[in-house]
Amino acid sequence: MSIQTSGLHHVTAIGGDPQRNVDFYLRALGLRLVKTTVNFDDPGTYHLYYGDEAGRPGTLMTFFPWRGAPRGRHGTGQATTTSFSVPAASIGWWKQHLERLGVEVSRISSRAHEDALTFHDPDGLVLSLVSHEQDDPREPWDNGVIPVEHGIRGLHSVTLSVTQEEATAGMLVDGLGLRFVDQQGNRFRFEAGAGGPGALVDVLVTPDAPRGLVAAGTVHHVAWRAPDEATQAQWREELTDRGVSVTSILDRQYFRSIYFREPGGTLLEVATDEPGFAIDEPLLELGRALKLPPWLEPDREQIQAMLPALDLPDENNPEFAEQRRSHQPAAATQTSAAQVSGSAATEARSA
């Protein structure tokens, strides 16, 4: 393959209640909601994008939240863990923070020069916070709630569960340009570009695990970065020449996308870095209003009538974050913990 990805672009999952989703990812994890839009293929459903201040590629976690959606099943043929990067000295702080919110967390585990803390979101999605011995230079979103020195830097890695690794490894290496770097037991690690947090994927071989079922609490697809549309078009042509079934290039407003499945079953995407999330609202106002692409704008009234009301917490606004840091830094985190909905904490414990 002549083209190589530089790393992860975003991970998209299926959620349940959209308000509960917003409360958890903004207030418990301290991410910023950088775009409130809809699933372009199903406009009666939100598409919520979380990330750093500007929603840069490699920091993004996105959701299709369907209220009342049935729970999915974790298993082979899907991404089973989404991991975020945090500073090396922050794992203990995050364990205490999440436990204070009523989220059940694992014991801190160590593997390959990394410490990891695993837990579930309110819909049962498996998440992990990973500290890596390699410094992560990305700046966290500073919302005045999560101390900036502990803030999430972006995506760290994803774990793909498969029944056997050979064909999936072949797609990662020959189709995406990743390289194999390590094996620990039944876990195989690959990295893209310069490597490190945001450019890693683990392939976990679990031949006796059930086949995964994509629904609430599971990952829908994993997206990898392409620098521009010309590179993406060439990439699509090369994949097609290799016999891979690839979609046409789709306009996702904030990037362009192609989709295909790796042999193990996980849906993959190649997404362009540009144009980004500030093309239809100012950086300071990201996520505050429902944004629709031009071809859906004529149906705005009907679409809004189908969507449940969504109350965006003040923590998403830079002005509020600055005010909170200035006037009540000591109480900020405790107040935020109390504001996370009881249903989120309860469901996280039961996941």
Automatic annotation (TrEMBL):
Pfam families: Glyoxalase (PF00903)
Low complexity bias: start-end ranges: 328-351
Domain called VOC: residue spans: 7-132, 154-273
Cited SUPFAM superfamilies: Glyoxalase/Bleomycin resistance protein/Dihydroxybiphenyl dioxygenase
Signal peptide feature range: none
Gene3D superfamilies linked: 2,3-Dihydroxybiphenyl 1,2-Dioxygenase, domain 1
Protein origin, superkingdom: Bacteria
Family annotation (InterPro entries): Extradiol_RC_dioxygenase, Glyas_Bleomycin-R_OHBP_Dase, Glyas_Fos-R_dOase_dom, VOC_core
Disordered: annotated span: 311-351
Protein name from the UniProt record: Glyoxalase family protein
